[in-house]
């Protein structure tokens, strides 16, 4: 099993790619506007919020819950930017699941998770940011 921080590293990139695709196809704006919108979807606070909602709704499988726990408990040697450590750890946890699903080629489940996260974000901040 890979290091949970390595999974989170991969998951961060994958989530960013899915969010960029979603925003480009939906908004069709200039790059600066797209970047400003994407930050709402990929921020640590937004990811932690989505994780909380998904946990409340029992979205995750047992295997995914194990990855979440490992991701949340992993000792990171980088400092959280613009957020507290609990929020940073929750965002790392959900990124670890995304990275895990990507690396084991569970594309359907990965897309289900990312689409749910996008939906949660849009409900929280409004459909157009």
TrEMBL record:
Q: Where in the cell is it found?
A: Cytoplasm
A single GO cellular-component term on record: cytoplasm
Q: InterPro entries annotated for this entry?
A: Mini3_fam, RNase_III_dom, RNase_III_sf
Q: Which parts of the sequence belong to the RNase III domain? A: 6-103
Give the protein's cofactors: Mg(2+)
Q: Which domain of life is it from?
A: Bacteria
Q: What class of enzyme is it?
A: hydrolase
User: In its UniProt record, which GO terms are filed under biological process?
Assistant: rRNA processing
Its subunit composition reads: Homodimer.
Q: Please give the name of this protein.
A: Mini-ribonuclease 3
